[in-house]
Structure formats: structure tokens, C-alpha cells
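Sequence, please.
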């Protein structure tokens, strides 16, 4: 079966004027237009293509890489808004349609939005939706505390950064746990700091708890080396200064230098920390 909105590995069956006809094991066939065909190929070669619907809603193959696939989220640019809805640039020749009823708030041309790609059951067409809460759930969690996850930042608030976790759950990075510049649309690795009784997921960008001590300690050692062996930070340094200069919380900093001190790798001074030079 050729899957719409997904990558398919298909066999080159024949070459015609419109392009290459590709097929699967069930004798389903789709066209790959000439402009997307590989420079070198043989009949019966296998090729990976993305299949979507053309302007006449017929399956069509392409070697272009879309910004999102079926049942996933992407951060897309709205290129036009008409009386029918919004049209998003998703990396393919035909733009992705987002009906008005699927817009969390009225879209504007020239703006960016988090969009989910799905197949409309009534029309069997690929459509987008910015009503992202419909497509995530925290009832049945598939993650656990301290686990590494993939996140997509959906929007920033006074509380922190709202994120989609592994494409299926909602999470939040509290403002006090943000030590670097993050923006809507960012994708990155992160960690589950805590799962609350109501199944809300707290996310952090650094390894949480005791697991972060060693990486932070190594980072401080690298900073000491780069600075010639001394850094003007200590346990009375303002937390904002540590956050801005080292990208970590005051608590994480104190844990890290405590580890380095116990391992006799630094000397604690009134005006900062000094690296111990091996004899």
C-alpha cells in the first residue's frame, strides 16, 4: 500500500513522458514527475519518495523533503490567506491547506505557526491544523522521569516554554529552568524532570538532578581552561550572572563546583574558583 503523507520505498516500473511510474508489492502505482527523477537509475531500482496529493487530489511522488509528515507537527510559514483558508509552505510544490475551522486563531500571511498534518476523514485530503491540543494527550504517558526526549517548542508564556514531547504529549519548561535562548519552533533534545500527579510533564534542557552534576562539572572545567584557570564566580555570585555567563542555575553551579572541590580539581577562593594545576 502506498501511504499518503509519508515516505515510501517503491520500485521504478517504467519511464514515460510525464515521468517515472513507481509501484509497490500490491501493484499500486504512483507517478514521479521528470523534474524529481534521479540522474542515474535503472528499471526495477528501488527509490525512496514522499507521496502526497497534487492539485487535483491525485497521489503524486516527489524527492523533495517536506517539513513534516503525516500525524506529526511542524513550524510552518503562512504564505497566503484566502476566503477558503490559509496556505502553508511545507517544502513541497503544492502548499498545505489549513481550513478556518482548524485555526486556533485567525492566521495571517507572513506569520509562522505550529501545524499538525492529518488526513481529513470526510474528504480524504491532507490538511493542516494549528489546534495542536487536539493531537496530544497526557492520559497515557509513554515517558518517565529522567528520560531523554525530543521536544518542539510551541509557545512561550510567563510560566515558561510550552512544548510537545516526542510528538504525543504536552510538557512545560518552567521559566526558572530556562538558561538559554529558546524560541517557538525550536526542536531539541531535553529531559523529563518530573511527572506530576495529574500527569503534567515538567521538562528541562539539562540532565535533571544528580545526573547533571558530572556534565556541569566538566563544562566548568572547560570554561576554567578557556579562561586561563580562573573564573570570578562563587557561592555568593548573583544567580542571574551565573545564568547569563554559564547557562545554568545557581543550584546547578554550586553542585558542580562542590563535585570539583571534593575531587580536588578546583580551589575555592573569596573572589572565584581556581583550577588546580597537576604537577
Amino acid at each position: 500500500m502506498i501511504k499518503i503523507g509519508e515516505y515510501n520505498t517503491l520500485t521504478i516500473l517504467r519511464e514515460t513522458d510525464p515521468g517515472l511510474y513507481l509501484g509497490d508489492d500490491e501493484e499500486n502505482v504512483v507517478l514521479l514527475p521528470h523534474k524529481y527523477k534521479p540522474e542515474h537509475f535503472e528499471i526495477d531500482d528501488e527509490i525512496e519518495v514522499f507521496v502526497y496529493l497534487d492539485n487535483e487530489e491525485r497521489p503524486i511522488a516527489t524527492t523533495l523533503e517536506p517539513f513534516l509528515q503525516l500525524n506529526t507537527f511542524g513550524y510552518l510559514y503562512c504564505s497566503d490567506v484566502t476566503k477558503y483558508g490559509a496556505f502553508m509552505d511545507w517544502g513541497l510544490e503544492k502548499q498545505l491547506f489549513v481550513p478556518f475551522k482548524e485555526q486556533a486563531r485567525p492566521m495571517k500571511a507572513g506569520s509562522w505557526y505550529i501545524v499538525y498534518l492529518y488526513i481529513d476523514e470526510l474528504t480524504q485530503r491532507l490538511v493542516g491544523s494549528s489546534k495542536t491540543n487536539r493531537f496530544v494527550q497526557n492520559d497515557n504517558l509513554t515517558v518517565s522521569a529522567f528520560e531523554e526526549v525530543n521536544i518542539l517548542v510551541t509557545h512561550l508564556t510567563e510560566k515558561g516554554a510550552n512544548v510537545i514531547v516526542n510528538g504525543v504529549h504536552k510538557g512545560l519548561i518552567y521559566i526558572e529552568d530556562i538558561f538559554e535562548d529558546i524560541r517557538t519552533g525550536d526542536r531539541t533534545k531535553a529531559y523529563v524532570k518530573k511527572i506530576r500527579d495529574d500527569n503534567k510533564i515538567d521538562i528541562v534542557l539539562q540532565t535533571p538532578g544528580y545526573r547533571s552534576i558530572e556534565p556541569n562539572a566538566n563544562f566548568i572545567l572547560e570554561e576554567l581552561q578557556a579562561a586561563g584557570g580562573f573564573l570570578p564566580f562563587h557561592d555568593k555570585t548573583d544567580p542571574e550572572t551565573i545564568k547569563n555567563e554559564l547557562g545554568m542555575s545557581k543550584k546547578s553551579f554550586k553542585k558542580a563546583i562542590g563535585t570539583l572541590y571534593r575531587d580536588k580539581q578546583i580551589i575555592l577562593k573569596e573572589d572565584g574558583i581556581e583550577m588546580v594545576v597537576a604537577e
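The chain has four domains: 6-62, 73-134, 148-205, 210-275.
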